[in-house]
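Memo to structure team: turn this sequence into structure tokens by end of day. - J.P.
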Amino acid sequence: MAQAITLARPYARAAFEVAHAAGTLQAWSQALAFAAAVAKDPRVADLANDPRVLPAQLVALHLPAGTAADSPFGQFLGEMAEQRRLVLLPEVAELFEAFKRESESQLLVKVTSAMALDAAQAEQLKASLKRRFKREIELETRVDASLLAGVVIDTGEQVIDGSARGRLAQMASALS
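Reply from structure team:
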């Protein structure tokens, strides 16, 4: 995984810079999401490593409908196909999204709670996080009943564990 991210980072940075300069971040985001979904298909992954399949054929598989092979995105895929790196597209798309959020002063926050958050709680949490991090907040929520109560907030750089399970673990550690 770490090696894939390391290999994908220069491609993601290049894609971001091209898209940002052209003002087409959203279009590239959608195209990369499509290409990443195609790359995740095990049948396509097998083809990506088959020397009998030409890079142009691989590019055609990964291009969204209506996107030309000679477009900037098509050329980007062509370069990745020449290097046999299309299998990195899921990581490239993930890193591209992180660069995009950073440029838009957005922060993706993963919130795990013991019970589902209602809309009012989610908005209140977003407002608090916006004040704290001084950025627009995009919440990704999930439920984990094993937390017992409370929430765990993960910003990617910082984890705030306000769960009952986390506090119990801290107490156990302090007592031993």
